[in-house]
């Protein structure tokens, strides 16, 4: 096997492994909630996510800790939006929604990246493939959140928890655009570190002052570890394979999550929801597809 094939194989393994980590996130969160609250769980999650990313930078390139002052305001905005708002509201939503709902709605992020990018990045335009991808992923979201034909017919479009996950998804998409527009020159590890570090300092300080920082169960620690490992593996993977391949491999997350949700939490998925998961496939395919150049 030549070097290029080895690199591609390692990239595929890294992204698939990251998908498993992200599928484990809601599982560990729901188990942690049996003996801990949202604030404590989120604080511990942030600490151990940051610890894993810090170790990754220490063993790869310590210079990635340093950043020019001009990037700090953007990093603060990114951290507050992606971590203190989006991550926190997602973790809170996991107290209300099944695993499959949370993971699938979270994977609608490319839809909002395309839409927000159209209005904020002048060189981005929405193609016919984007429209097809957006339509497919909206159908996927509707089928999963309604869960049955009866709910869909009655226009019961999910719960407040589903709405919270959707809000988190839009916020994650917005920060992806911010990073793409203003932080393109920074290493991915640097962005990941400051994403957790700035918001983590604020939230952990608040929890420590208000309640005292405690670790009621090991699942809070595991939650942070899998997020940190998933982030590191994902950034390693995208260096080795194409963006379209990365997007396709990420689709494995809802399927891993559905399996783990059933095996660990006895959460069942309906036929309607399974069909919704299948609609993710053409959704990502079309969003990742590029139009051929004009002749």
What does this structure look like?
- Helices cover 77% and strands 0% of the residues.
- It has 295 residues and is an all-alpha fold.
- Helix 2 (38-60) runs antiparallel to helix 9 (188-210), helix 3 (72-93) crosses helix 9 and helix 4 (99-106) runs antiparallel to helix 6 (128-146).
- It is globular, with a radius of gyration of 19 Å.
- 42% of the residues are buried.
- The model has no long low-confidence stretch (mean pLDDT 85).
In short:
With 295 residues, the chain is mainly alpha-helical. 77% of the residues lie in helices and 0% in strands. Helix 2 (38-60) packs antiparallel against helix 9.
Mean pLDDT: 85
Strand content: under 5%
The total beta strand count reads: 0
Name the quaternary structure: single chain
H and E string = HHHHHHHHHHHHH
Query: Compute the gyration radius: what is it?
Result: 19 Å
Distance between the termini: 37 Å
Largest sheet: none
What class would the helix/strand composition place it in? mainly alpha
Question: What number of structural domains do the residues give?
Answer: 1
Sequence stretches where pLDDT stays below 50 over 5 or more residues: none
Number of helices: 13
Large-scale geometry? globular
Report helical residue fraction. over 70%
